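Minutes, structural biology subgroup

Action item carried over from last meeting: produce the C-alpha cell record for Helix-turn-helix domain-containing protein (Lentihominibacter hominis). EB confirmed the sequence was re-checked against the source entry. Recorded below for completeness.
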Amino acid sequence: MVKFMIEKENVNYIPGTSVAVRVYNIDRYEPHYHEDCIELLFVLKGDINILSTYDKFHLEKNDFTVINKGDIHYIKGRGENLVLSLYLNLSHFEKQCEYVQYIYFACESFNANSLQEKCSPEVRNLIIDIVLEAAKDDSDPKKIDGFAKQLMDIFINKYDFAHYHNGKEIPNSQLQRYYRIVKLIDTKYGEKLDLNDLAQKEFVGRNYISQFWKNLTNMNLTDYITSVRSERAEKMMLTSNKSINEISFNCGFSDSKYIYKGFKKWYEKTPSQHKKEYEKYKAEGTSVKEYSEAEILSKFGRTLIYANMDENKASFMQDSEKKENWRQKYELQIGKYSGSKIKQEMIKENHLEAGLKEIYLPLFDRAVVDIDGGNINMDMEFVEMVVKGAKKMSLLLYIEIYFPEHSVDEWESVLEYFVHALNESDAADFLPRCRFVVCFDDFADAVNVRKLMNRISHMVSSKNIRMALRFS
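Output recorded by EB:
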C-alpha cells in the first residue's frame, strides 16, 4: 500500500531568467510546494480559496498574495476564474539581499499596511510587465529579469514580516540583526533554541534580544520560533513517513506534547486531523485549464489586463467612499484580521499591550435584523462573521439592544433567534462571552426594559445583561 505523501512541484523557468509564468482557470489544485522560489498568485477574474500552511485566504479579482518558499499550499477555485502565478527563483536575488532565502514575505494586497498599499499599483504593473514581455514571440530575458529585480526589491523592502508591523523604513543595523535571527531560527529550528542562545549569538543580553524582536515585529519571539517549528513539522508530516515522535524530535520540540500544542495554536487542529484533510485534497487531484503565453495575448489581450488595473483603482476609491455605516466600517476593520495567521498574532499582541478587551456593536439593528409580521430575519452570515472575529481576537462582544426600536415581545423573539442560531453553530461556546446592553432614552421606559431583561434571563446569564441610558 502506497502511503499518502505530498510532493515538490518543479518550476519551468523562462530560459535565461529567474522567472516562470502560468495563467490558468483553477477548479482545484492539489497540495504541493516549491523548494527554490516564492509564488505570487494574482487573481485576474473570479475568486479562489487558498490554504497555505496554517493560513486560509479568499482572493477576489485584483487580489494578490505570496506563497513563501517551501510552504505547502492547496488552491480551490470558485466558478469561472482566471489566475496568474508568477514564480521568482530566490537564488537569483541573493546579490540584492544575502538573506533572501530566509525572509518571510507578508504580502497580501487585501490586508496591507499603508506603506504596502502605496506600493500595490507598482507591484501590479510590474507583474503585468513581466507577463506581457514573457508572452511575446521575441521576449527579452534581460527585460524580464529587470522587471523581476524591481519587483523583488519592493518585496524585500516593503513586504517582509518586519516591515508589515513597522510600516516604515527600518535602520539597516536593525534589519541586519533581524535577518541574522530569522536565518538562525530557519536553519537551527531542530536544535535547542531559546532567548539565551539567540542573545549569545548576537553578543547582547536576553532582555535586549526579546525587546528588540518585540519592537520590530510586535510578536513574542518564542511564539515565532514555535510557528516555524510547527510549519516544519507540518511539512515533515505531509512529505515523509516519519512518526509524530520522530517529527517532534527533529523539529526541536522537547516533548511530543508540545507539537500538539503548537498545532492547536497555529493550525487549530491536531496533526492527524490536518493530515486527513490534506489526504482528501491530494486524492481529489488537480483540475486546471492552463493557457500558453501566446494564448494570454490572443485570448485575453492587453485590454483585459489593463482594464483590471484601472478597475481596481476605481473600486478602491468607491469602497473608500462607501465605508459610512457601522457595518461597513466593521467589515473594513475586520478585513485587516483576515490576513496570515502570523499577522493575526501580531495584531492580537498589539491589542493585549494596549489593553483592548471588548468590541461594541449594535448587532441587532436594522442593518442586520428585520422583523416582518412577527417573523425574524437575521443576517446570520454576518452575525457568525462577527462572533468568529471576536472569538479569534479574544474579545468580549458587547451587543447593543436599542429598546425603542421594538416591543418587549419582539426583542425577546430576536434574542431567542440569536441564542438558538448561535447554539446550532460552530461558535456555541461563545455565548458566555456576549454581553447585552439594553439602551433607552426615556426614563419612563425603565420598567419595560427591566421586564425585557427578566424575560431573557433564562437564555442569557443575568450578570451579562445590563441597562443604560443612551442619548444619540
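Discussion: Residues 172-268 form a domain with the Arc Repressor Mutant, subunit A fold (CATH 1.10.10.60).
Next step: EB to file the record with the rest of the batch.
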